[in-house]
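Ticket #4471: structure output looks truncated?

Reporter: J.K.
Steps to reproduce: submitted the chain below (326 residues) through the standard prediction queue, then opened the result file.
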Amino acid sequence: MQCLRQRALALRHAFDGQTRINGSIQKRWARVHDARFLATQGGDNPMIEKYRAKLDQKAKEEGHAGINELQDAYKDKIASLRRKATVPSTPPPLGLSSPVRQSPESGLSTGPIPPSPPSPAQAAESANSALPRSPFSSTGPKPLSAYLDMAKVLDLPARELEYVWRLRHAKTENSLCAVIPAATYAGMAETARRHPQFILPLPREGQAAEIHFLQWAFPSPDTSTVLFTHLAEYKLRGEYSQAHTTVTHHLDLQGPKGLVLLQGSVTSGRGVTVEDGRWLLMCLQKFYGPGADLASAPRKRLLERFSGGAEDFRLEELLEEAEKIS
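Returned output as attached by the reporter:
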């Protein structure tokens, strides 16, 4: 009896050991799967499983054999919704990246300035591309005949012509107008062709002066335009920036009357008033207008330094020259 009991114990230990050996072998050769792989390879869609009952009911209501046919019927609509939900990537805007040489006490609220402006042809093309956004026309600046009866104004004396032109814009909100002697404009245009881009400061009482970027363009033999844009916006959006003030010089009467008629508009809600626009126009004439006096020499040097991308162009000097304008 004792012998049988010992044999039973031996057999039990033998089977227990074999079980442990087989268990260790099974564990050693078990296949390990990446849960991320299993989640994307085959298997049922968890969303379909979650709403299977409702999808089956929808399929039956529309006469489909099952969920797969329902998906096929709606695949075009699903693809369309996915496309609409996709947000397209926005290309980085064009801007200015050159550092500005200015001191902390300069009182200027601006960052970089253009290191080297494009050629006059490129500047004209860039300015012309912005014209459709101006308040004048969807195709560019309106001709002088859109404002005046050309047959009648040719018979008017210069003084009466100026009066009629100013009266024409007196009641127009946000309007700018001026009458420029032909010789003065000729000097401005000559300078503008050499320096089609520049920056002008706009003083603010109790605040830092704002800097505005201007671009000249000559879209036709009878017109020239100047676009004024916040420098901060131009740095951010480049050629896609929108001008807050657009000015057109009409040259139709430059020969017969010796006058150039200026017409412009200030866009509402852009942080610039009509008075601000008049100040910028006055600065424009002072920097671009002809003059052999000593006062104009520093302004001409600033134009040349800016156009050439000179490192010694300083905003403090620009502000000093602007403060002399009255």
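Triage note (M.O.): checked the attachment and the full token line is present. Residues 17-43, 86-116, 127-136 have pLDDT under 50 and may be disordered.
Status: closed, working as intended.
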